[in-house]
Amino acid sequence: MIKNQESLSMIEALELMKKAESENIELNGFIKKFINVDVKDATKIRQAIEKMNLLKVKPEHIAKLIDLLPETTFDLAKIFSDVSLDENETKQILDAIKQNK
Q1: pLDDT at residue 32 is higher than 90
Q2: CA 65: distance to chain centroid?
Q3: How far apart are CA 32 and CA 48, in angstroms?
Q4: Domains of the chain: which residue ranges?
């Protein structure tokens, strides 16, 4: 049964599985292959981006930002393919990622 639906990055999903004492070793191992950041840094990135209160940035975008850690405007545009960010928003997001990873 689904109790709550929210967008999580891979590291956040892995931590949630650990808290739930999930013993799916194959899935845990698979997820770990793609994680580029630790839980503490992922939390800092999420909080920094949420504090910006940018209307165009959805929870799904934040999860992908944490997973992919874009470093350039080009990389960021791949995540925000459905939204057009202005130069200031782009700079704010990239700076938040850079400062918190």
Answers
A1: no
A2: 4
A3: 24
A4: 10-100
